[in-house]
Amino acid sequence: MEVSVNAHMPGLVARVVVNEGDKVVKGQEVAVINCMKTELSVRSDQDGVVKTILVKEWDEMEIGNPMIIMAVDHK
Amino acid sequence: MSVRYPCRHTGESRNPERQWMPVFTGMTEEVDTYFCCAVLSKPGFPLRKGYRLFNPTSAIRHPTSANRKDAKVIKKLLIANRGEIVVRVMKTCHKLGIKTVAVYSDADRNMFYLKETDEAYHIGPSNPIKSYLNIEAILDAARQSGADAIHPGYGFLSENSLFADAVVTNGITWVGPPPAVLMAIDSKCYCRKIATDAGVPVIPGTIDTISSADELCRYASEHGYPLVLKLDKGGGGKGIEVVREDLQAKEAFERLSRIGMLAFGHPGAYIEKEVISPRHIEIQFLADGFGNCVCLGERECSIQRRYQKIIEESPSPVVHEKERAMLFECTANLVRAMGYQGAGTMEFLRSAEGQFYFMEVNARLQVEHPVTEFLTGIDIVEQQLRIASGEKLELQQADVQLRGHAIEARIYAEDPVSFCPSPGTISSLQFPATDPAHLRIDHAMEAGAAVPPYYDPLLAKVIAWGESRRDAVDKLVRALSEFHVEGIKTTIPANLLILSSPKFLDGELDTGFIDGLYASAAPDQLSGKPLWPCM
Question: Judging by beta carbons within 10 Å of its beta carbon (0-12, 13-18, 19+), is residue A27 exposed, middle or buried?
């Protein structure tokens, strides 16, 4: 199934640190949001594979905006 | 007291709401209570040369021919910034009868000060890269408005030599140091060289950038750890790595080079010895185009988090008269060697042993400039405008009197425990009662206004003046206790904790003060828990 990793803070996308196809483990940093000039990590809350990256550097983010779609294996 | 008069520029205003604007009457006590400080509150205090800035008849429009060289009259000033500094610069413009032009991004379109400027231009989306850092958009606004000068405030493009150069090339007066000076001093290694040549001590280390991690290890084998690796063109607390052993050298060097390339376009880094428990002490100066330089005292800015200041005061609790004279001399030498013109700040570190080292020059109006204005009675923005328009400094060093004690607390939209950002909307707001002689608040806050996540978290600055340090601190504490902001988290509880700590009251400050304080503070001393984990 697919889940999204969402922005937990508003701000600007500073960078995305994973590529499509990358394996990601729970707690891993997948992107960085710049909120009020402070860089905050966005972390995946589960293991999975990056399917689609929805954002790019400097995109404006609101809390809850999906940033990355991940394929996760729920058994 | 401000009185509402019809706008002097009726007809030019694009927005009919702006045809009424507050202007100040010509009497000294009504000119601008914002700047009237203790100096003026004393009846019969002589209005010396340096204080004529409070007299609106001395407006920049009426210089005497003797004190001008290539005079350029500033009639309309564009303020290329946002937030409290726009309000601050506007105050001086109103006093001097200079028209103001503001610019704004999407996120700032409802800022209250836009209604108080003569003109306001939309310059782009919320993303600062496309608005406040967009040189073309700002120059377009200047051309459309017919502004004859640009004040860059602080941050954003304020120390950008390309912007300064573009402004000058377009025939607009740049309120700041000459573009060539800005370009040169952008390099910390250049500044270290200039300082060394001028006999000003710098932190021991390399004068030039290093080319590899091996060079770092070689330096360490001779001089020992800990060392600090710094980007030649870093700034804003970015581009600093502490290295404690050979094993960390390669990773630190590579990480810093990468950050340098990505954030500043220059990977070069140099080495400094780590100064343990330093104090941050800076000298505010004014330099004109005639070779005159006047120092306006020091500011102690040791209370910092993430290399950014929270509390600033003057005089410093430790700097004595002899040291001050030495720092003034170093500053004047550096100013001369750099060919600097305008207002600026020389930053020094003071080691625990009392040794001073020159660190860098801040080529802009600084956030904490009100501390110095309170202490000296000198309007630094006015001096900037005068210097930019080609006037000679009328102040002499002997005119500068440092009276009493001034202290500033910066209020950030941040969690007071974790210092994580807290953007949102101000739901309710109550300011402490200001008193022109003792308490000043610089801000751009309004109940119901959004605090956008795209910009610096600075909300307001509260500045108190007192006869003694204790008196000033007490006034600041009282004001902060009466300052209520709801809807977002603020650092007011953190400021109060700092100001009430015995160590602070004893004047025992260093740049690691906050870490030490927080390690020992009981959780209930700080209201609220972190909103979000800062990672």
Answer: exposed
Please list, in sequence order, all residues whose beta carbon lies within 8 angstroms of the beta carbon of residue B506, skipping any fewer than 6 positions away. none
- CB-CB neighbors (< 8 A) of A58 in chain B: 127, 129
Q: Which amino acid is at B414?
A: E
The full set of domains in chain B, from first to last, is 3-183 (3.30.470.20), 204-273 (3.30.1490.20)
Token look-up 């202290």 returns B407
Give chain A's domain count: 1
Tokens 């051309």 identify what position? B143
Cα(B485)–Cα(B158) distance, integer angstroms: 29
Report ipTM for this prediction: 0.92
Q: Is residue B316 over pLDDT 90? A: yes
Q: How many CB atoms lie within 10 A of CB B282?
A: 29
- Torsion angle of C-alpha atoms B12, B13, B19, B22, degrees rounded to 10: -100
> What is the separation, in whole angstroms, between the first and last Cα of chain B?
47
Confidence of residue A14 (pLDDT cuts 50, 70, 90): very high
Q: What is the CATH number of the domain that holds A51?
A: 2.40.50.100
B457 touches chain A (CB under 8 A): yes
The partner residue sitting opposite A36, judged by closest CB among B125, B127, B423, is: B423
Nearest residue to B68 (alpha-carbon basis) of B393, B396, B395, B335? B393
Asked if residues B401 and B495 have their Cβ atoms less than 8 Å apart, the reply is no
Give the mutation candidate from B454, B459, B490, B534 for the A interface (greatest A CB count, under 10 A): B454
Residue B145, phi then psi, degrees to nearest 5: -85, -20
Q: Which domain holds residue A26?
A: 2-71
The per-residue pLDDT for range B66-117, each reduced to its tens digit, is 444 456 799 999 999 999 999 999 999 999 999 999 999 999 999 999 999 9
- Inter-chain touch A60–B129, beta carbons under 8 Å: no
- Name chain A contacts of B239, Cβ cutoff 8 Å: none
* C-alpha dihedral, B147 to B151 to B155 to B156, nearest 10°: 20
Interface residue of A15, A34, A38 to substitute, partner B, most B CBs within 10 Å: A38
Instruction: Tell me which residue of B376, B360, B341, B295 sits closest to B168, measured CA to CA.
Output: B341
Question: For residue B416, is the peptide bond before it cis, meaning its omega torsion is within 30 degrees of 0?
Answer: no
The alpha helices in B77-187, defined as continuous H runs, are 84-96, 135-145, 161-169, 179-185
Question: Chain centroid to CA A65: how far?
Answer: 10
B407-443 per-position pLDDT tens digit: 999 999 999 998 999 999 999 999 999 998 999 999 9
- Whether residues A36 and B421 touch (CB distance < 8 A) is answered with yes
Catalytic annotation present for B364: yes
